[in-house]
Amino acid sequence: MELKGKLAVITGSNSGIGLGVAEALARAGADVVLNSFTDRAEDHDLARKIASETGVMARYIAADMSKGDDCRALIEKAGGCDILVNNAGIQYVAPIQDFPPEKWDSILAINLTSAFHTTAVALAHMRKQGWGRVVNIASAHGLTASPFKSAYIAAKHGIVGLSKTVALETAGEGITCNAICPGYVLTPLVEAQIPEQMKAHTMDRETVIREVMLDRQPSRQFATVEQIGGTVVYLCSAAADQVTGTTISVDGGWTAL
Ligand code: NAD
User: Fold this and answer.
1) pTM of the predicted protein model
2) What's residue 1's pLDDT?
Protein backbone atom coordinates (compact mmCIF):
# COMPACT_ATOMS: atom_id res chain seq x y z
CA MET A 1 0.00 0.00 0.00
CA GLU A 2 2.99 2.28 -0.70
CA LEU A 3 0.81 4.69 -2.68
CA LYS A 4 -1.87 5.23 -0.01
CA GLY A 5 -2.97 8.88 0.04
CA LYS A 6 -1.81 9.56 -3.54
CA LEU A 7 -4.30 10.51 -6.24
CA ALA A 8 -3.66 9.07 -9.71
CA VAL A 9 -5.27 10.25 -12.93
CA ILE A 10 -5.03 7.80 -15.82
CA THR A 11 -6.17 9.03 -19.23
CA GLY A 12 -7.90 6.57 -21.56
CA SER A 13 -8.53 4.04 -18.82
CA ASN A 14 -11.89 2.41 -19.55
CA SER A 15 -10.09 -0.36 -21.45
CA GLY A 16 -6.78 -2.11 -22.10
CA ILE A 17 -3.52 -0.83 -20.63
CA GLY A 18 -5.10 2.22 -18.97
CA LEU A 19 -7.57 0.08 -17.05
CA GLY A 20 -4.79 -2.35 -16.08
CA VAL A 21 -2.67 0.54 -14.83
CA ALA A 22 -5.60 1.97 -12.82
CA GLU A 23 -6.17 -1.44 -11.22
CA ALA A 24 -2.46 -1.84 -10.38
CA LEU A 25 -2.24 1.65 -8.84
CA ALA A 26 -5.42 1.01 -6.81
CA ARG A 27 -3.99 -2.29 -5.55
CA ALA A 28 -0.89 -0.30 -4.46
CA GLY A 29 -3.20 1.96 -2.43
CA ALA A 30 -3.62 5.02 -4.69
CA ASP A 31 -7.00 6.66 -5.23
CA VAL A 32 -7.70 6.63 -8.96
CA VAL A 33 -9.51 8.70 -11.57
CA LEU A 34 -10.46 6.77 -14.67
CA ASN A 35 -11.16 8.56 -17.96
CA SER A 36 -12.30 8.27 -21.51
CA PHE A 37 -14.39 10.40 -23.86
CA THR A 38 -17.61 8.40 -23.32
CA ASP A 39 -19.97 8.88 -20.35
CA ARG A 40 -21.79 5.55 -20.07
CA ALA A 41 -23.05 3.73 -16.99
CA GLU A 42 -20.52 0.96 -17.66
CA ASP A 43 -17.64 3.49 -17.53
CA HIS A 44 -18.69 4.55 -14.02
CA ASP A 45 -19.21 0.87 -13.09
CA LEU A 46 -15.50 0.21 -13.78
CA ALA A 47 -14.56 2.78 -11.13
CA ARG A 48 -17.13 1.36 -8.68
CA LYS A 49 -15.71 -2.15 -9.20
CA ILE A 50 -12.13 -0.97 -8.49
CA ALA A 51 -13.31 0.86 -5.35
CA SER A 52 -15.19 -2.15 -4.03
CA GLU A 53 -12.33 -4.58 -4.77
CA THR A 54 -9.48 -2.49 -3.34
CA GLY A 55 -11.05 -0.07 -0.84
CA VAL A 56 -9.53 3.01 -2.51
CA MET A 57 -11.56 5.96 -3.82
CA ALA A 58 -12.17 5.53 -7.55
CA ARG A 59 -14.04 7.83 -9.91
CA TYR A 60 -14.65 8.03 -13.63
CA ILE A 61 -14.51 11.46 -15.30
CA ALA A 62 -15.46 11.83 -18.97
CA ALA A 63 -13.14 14.13 -20.96
CA ASP A 64 -12.11 14.05 -24.61
CA MET A 65 -8.30 13.91 -24.86
CA SER A 66 -8.46 15.27 -28.42
CA LYS A 67 -9.53 18.64 -26.92
CA GLY A 68 -7.07 20.77 -24.97
CA ASP A 69 -9.75 22.31 -22.72
CA ASP A 70 -11.07 18.86 -21.78
CA CYS A 71 -7.55 17.66 -20.93
CA ARG A 72 -6.99 20.60 -18.60
CA ALA A 73 -10.49 20.29 -17.09
CA LEU A 74 -9.89 16.59 -16.32
CA ILE A 75 -7.07 17.43 -13.91
CA GLU A 76 -9.04 20.28 -12.33
CA LYS A 77 -12.15 18.09 -11.90
CA ALA A 78 -10.00 15.37 -10.33
CA GLY A 79 -9.27 17.92 -7.58
CA GLY A 80 -5.53 17.32 -7.66
CA CYS A 81 -3.05 14.92 -9.18
CA ASP A 82 -0.04 13.24 -7.59
CA ILE A 83 0.39 10.60 -10.30
CA LEU A 84 -0.45 11.35 -13.92
CA VAL A 85 -0.47 8.51 -16.44
CA ASN A 86 -0.85 9.77 -19.99
CA ASN A 87 -2.16 6.65 -21.70
CA ALA A 88 -5.01 7.61 -24.08
CA GLY A 89 -4.12 6.61 -27.60
CA ILE A 90 -5.47 5.60 -30.98
CA GLN A 91 -3.91 4.05 -34.06
CA TYR A 92 -4.43 4.29 -37.83
CA VAL A 93 -2.43 2.42 -40.47
CA ALA A 94 -1.96 3.66 -44.06
CA PRO A 95 0.88 4.64 -46.40
CA ILE A 96 1.75 8.30 -45.96
CA GLN A 97 0.36 9.37 -49.36
CA ASP A 98 -3.05 7.90 -48.43
CA PHE A 99 -2.96 8.90 -44.75
CA PRO A 100 -6.07 11.04 -44.08
CA PRO A 101 -4.95 14.43 -42.68
CA GLU A 102 -7.79 14.35 -40.12
CA LYS A 103 -6.43 11.01 -38.80
CA TRP A 104 -2.96 12.55 -38.52
CA ASP A 105 -4.45 15.45 -36.54
CA SER A 106 -6.47 13.28 -34.16
CA ILE A 107 -3.58 10.85 -33.50
CA LEU A 108 -1.22 13.74 -32.72
CA ALA A 109 -3.89 15.39 -30.52
CA ILE A 110 -4.82 12.28 -28.48
CA ASN A 111 -1.44 10.48 -28.34
CA LEU A 112 0.80 13.54 -27.82
CA THR A 113 -0.80 16.97 -27.35
CA SER A 114 -3.14 15.72 -24.59
CA ALA A 115 -0.06 14.93 -22.46
CA PHE A 116 1.21 18.50 -22.90
CA HIS A 117 -2.10 19.86 -21.55
CA THR A 118 -2.59 17.40 -18.66
CA THR A 119 1.05 17.68 -17.57
CA ALA A 120 0.96 21.49 -17.60
CA VAL A 121 -1.95 21.51 -15.12
CA ALA A 122 -0.87 18.50 -13.06
CA LEU A 123 2.62 19.92 -12.38
CA ALA A 124 1.09 22.82 -10.45
CA HIS A 125 -0.56 20.32 -8.06
CA MET A 126 2.60 18.19 -7.79
CA ARG A 127 4.81 21.20 -7.04
CA LYS A 128 2.52 22.17 -4.13
CA GLN A 129 3.16 18.73 -2.56
CA GLY A 130 6.82 18.54 -3.57
CA TRP A 131 6.13 15.08 -4.97
CA GLY A 132 4.80 13.84 -8.28
CA ARG A 133 5.03 11.20 -10.96
CA VAL A 134 4.29 11.64 -14.65
CA VAL A 135 4.30 8.36 -16.56
CA ASN A 136 3.74 8.51 -20.30
CA ILE A 137 2.69 5.34 -22.09
CA ALA A 138 4.77 5.59 -25.27
CA SER A 139 5.58 2.46 -27.29
CA ALA A 140 8.41 0.48 -28.87
CA HIS A 141 7.29 2.74 -31.72
CA GLY A 142 8.57 5.68 -29.66
CA LEU A 143 12.08 4.30 -30.22
CA THR A 144 11.84 2.51 -33.57
CA ALA A 145 9.67 2.82 -36.68
CA SER A 146 7.52 0.61 -38.89
CA PRO A 147 5.97 1.50 -42.24
CA PHE A 148 2.40 2.82 -42.52
CA LYS A 149 2.17 4.17 -38.96
CA SER A 150 3.53 7.69 -39.60
CA ALA A 151 1.28 9.62 -37.23
CA TYR A 152 1.49 7.07 -34.40
CA ILE A 153 5.29 6.86 -34.63
CA ALA A 154 5.69 10.64 -34.83
CA ALA A 155 3.44 11.03 -31.77
CA LYS A 156 5.19 8.29 -29.79
CA HIS A 157 8.68 9.65 -30.58
CA GLY A 158 7.26 13.04 -29.57
CA ILE A 159 6.06 11.83 -26.18
CA VAL A 160 9.49 10.33 -25.44
CA GLY A 161 10.98 13.78 -26.10
CA LEU A 162 8.29 15.48 -24.02
CA SER A 163 9.04 13.09 -21.13
CA LYS A 164 12.73 14.06 -21.18
CA THR A 165 11.90 17.79 -21.23
CA VAL A 166 9.44 17.53 -18.32
CA ALA A 167 12.06 15.53 -16.39
CA LEU A 168 14.61 18.32 -16.86
CA GLU A 169 12.12 21.04 -15.92
CA THR A 170 11.19 19.23 -12.68
CA ALA A 171 14.56 17.73 -11.70
CA GLY A 172 15.30 18.04 -7.98
CA GLU A 173 11.69 18.92 -7.11
CA GLY A 174 10.57 15.42 -6.03
CA ILE A 175 8.83 14.99 -9.37
CA THR A 176 9.84 12.46 -12.02
CA CYS A 177 8.72 11.97 -15.60
CA ASN A 178 9.38 8.84 -17.65
CA ALA A 179 8.01 6.97 -20.63
CA ILE A 180 7.15 3.26 -20.73
CA CYS A 181 7.65 1.70 -24.15
CA PRO A 182 5.55 -1.46 -24.49
CA GLY A 183 5.88 -3.86 -27.37
CA TYR A 184 2.68 -5.64 -28.37
CA VAL A 185 0.17 -5.98 -25.53
CA LEU A 186 -3.02 -7.93 -26.25
CA THR A 187 -5.66 -5.21 -25.72
CA PRO A 188 -8.74 -4.16 -27.75
CA LEU A 189 -6.45 -1.87 -29.81
CA VAL A 190 -4.33 -4.85 -30.89
CA GLU A 191 -7.19 -7.38 -31.02
CA ALA A 192 -8.86 -5.16 -33.64
CA GLN A 193 -5.80 -5.52 -35.91
CA ILE A 194 -5.86 -9.35 -35.92
CA PRO A 195 -8.72 -9.93 -38.43
CA GLU A 196 -7.17 -7.41 -40.89
CA GLN A 197 -3.78 -9.10 -40.59
CA MET A 198 -5.35 -12.58 -41.01
CA LYS A 199 -7.00 -11.37 -44.22
CA ALA A 200 -3.94 -9.56 -45.55
CA HIS A 201 -1.64 -12.58 -44.97
CA THR A 202 -4.24 -15.37 -45.47
CA MET A 203 -3.14 -16.95 -42.21
CA ASP A 204 -5.04 -18.31 -39.21
CA ARG A 205 -5.12 -16.36 -35.95
CA GLU A 206 -2.30 -18.21 -34.16
CA THR A 207 0.05 -18.03 -37.18
CA VAL A 208 -0.57 -14.35 -37.84
CA ILE A 209 0.07 -13.55 -34.15
CA ARG A 210 3.32 -15.55 -34.02
CA GLU A 211 4.74 -14.93 -37.51
CA VAL A 212 3.51 -11.42 -38.33
CA MET A 213 2.46 -9.46 -35.26
CA LEU A 214 5.13 -10.79 -32.88
CA ASP A 215 7.74 -11.01 -35.64
CA ARG A 216 9.72 -8.15 -34.06
CA GLN A 217 9.13 -9.25 -30.45
CA PRO A 218 11.85 -11.90 -29.88
CA SER A 219 10.00 -13.47 -26.92
CA ARG A 220 7.07 -14.18 -29.34
CA GLN A 221 4.84 -13.42 -26.38
CA PHE A 222 2.53 -10.47 -25.82
CA ALA A 223 3.32 -8.23 -22.85
CA THR A 224 0.37 -8.03 -20.42
CA VAL A 225 -1.53 -5.09 -18.97
CA GLU A 226 -0.50 -6.38 -15.51
CA GLN A 227 3.18 -6.08 -16.49
CA ILE A 228 2.67 -2.49 -17.68
CA GLY A 229 0.73 -1.75 -14.48
CA GLY A 230 3.57 -3.18 -12.40
CA THR A 231 6.08 -0.99 -14.24
CA VAL A 232 3.99 2.11 -13.49
CA VAL A 233 3.78 1.13 -9.80
CA TYR A 234 7.58 0.72 -9.74
CA LEU A 235 8.06 4.19 -11.28
CA CYS A 236 5.79 5.58 -8.53
CA SER A 237 7.77 3.86 -5.75
CA ALA A 238 10.59 5.31 -3.66
CA ALA A 239 12.99 2.93 -5.46
CA ALA A 240 12.47 5.05 -8.58
CA ASP A 241 13.02 8.47 -6.95
CA GLN A 242 16.11 9.05 -9.12
CA VAL A 243 14.68 7.46 -12.27
CA THR A 244 13.66 10.38 -14.47
CA GLY A 245 13.85 11.44 -18.10
CA THR A 246 14.22 7.90 -19.35
CA THR A 247 12.35 5.13 -21.13
CA ILE A 248 11.59 1.64 -19.84
CA SER A 249 10.96 -0.92 -22.55
CA VAL A 250 8.52 -3.78 -21.83
CA ASP A 251 8.80 -5.30 -25.27
CA GLY A 252 10.10 -8.89 -25.11
CA GLY A 253 13.42 -7.75 -26.61
CA TRP A 254 12.06 -5.79 -29.62
CA THR A 255 14.39 -2.80 -29.19
CA ALA A 256 17.42 -5.02 -28.50
CA LEU A 257 17.37 -6.29 -32.08
P1 NAD B 1 -7.24 0.58 -26.03
O2 NAD B 1 -7.92 0.92 -27.30
O3 NAD B 1 -7.69 -0.61 -25.26
O4 NAD B 1 -7.25 1.81 -25.05
C5 NAD B 1 -7.15 3.14 -25.48
C6 NAD B 1 -7.83 4.00 -24.45
O7 NAD B 1 -7.79 5.35 -24.91
C8 NAD B 1 -9.29 3.61 -24.27
O9 NAD B 1 -9.65 3.71 -22.92
C10 NAD B 1 -10.00 4.68 -25.09
O11 NAD B 1 -11.33 4.90 -24.64
C12 NAD B 1 -9.10 5.86 -24.82
N13 NAD B 1 -9.30 6.96 -25.75
C14 NAD B 1 -9.29 6.93 -27.11
N15 NAD B 1 -9.58 8.15 -27.60
C16 NAD B 1 -9.77 8.96 -26.53
C17 NAD B 1 -10.11 10.32 -26.38
N18 NAD B 1 -10.33 11.11 -27.44
N19 NAD B 1 -10.24 10.81 -25.12
C20 NAD B 1 -10.05 10.02 -24.04
N21 NAD B 1 -9.73 8.73 -24.13
C22 NAD B 1 -9.59 8.20 -25.35
O23 NAD B 1 -5.70 0.47 -26.38
P24 NAD B 1 -4.41 0.10 -25.51
O25 NAD B 1 -3.68 -0.92 -26.30
O26 NAD B 1 -4.76 -0.18 -24.11
O27 NAD B 1 -3.59 1.45 -25.62
C28 NAD B 1 -3.32 2.28 -24.53
C29 NAD B 1 -2.02 3.05 -24.79
O30 NAD B 1 -0.95 2.11 -24.88
C31 NAD B 1 -2.04 3.83 -26.10
O32 NAD B 1 -1.38 5.06 -25.90
C33 NAD B 1 -1.22 2.94 -27.02
O34 NAD B 1 -0.61 3.66 -28.04
C35 NAD B 1 -0.21 2.37 -26.06
N36 NAD B 1 0.43 1.14 -26.51
C37 NAD B 1 -0.29 0.02 -26.74
C38 NAD B 1 0.36 -1.12 -27.17
C39 NAD B 1 -0.37 -2.40 -27.42
O40 NAD B 1 0.23 -3.32 -28.00
N41 NAD B 1 -1.62 -2.55 -27.02
C42 NAD B 1 1.74 -1.11 -27.38
C43 NAD B 1 2.44 0.07 -27.14
C44 NAD B 1 1.78 1.18 -26.71
Assistant:
1) 0.97
2) 73
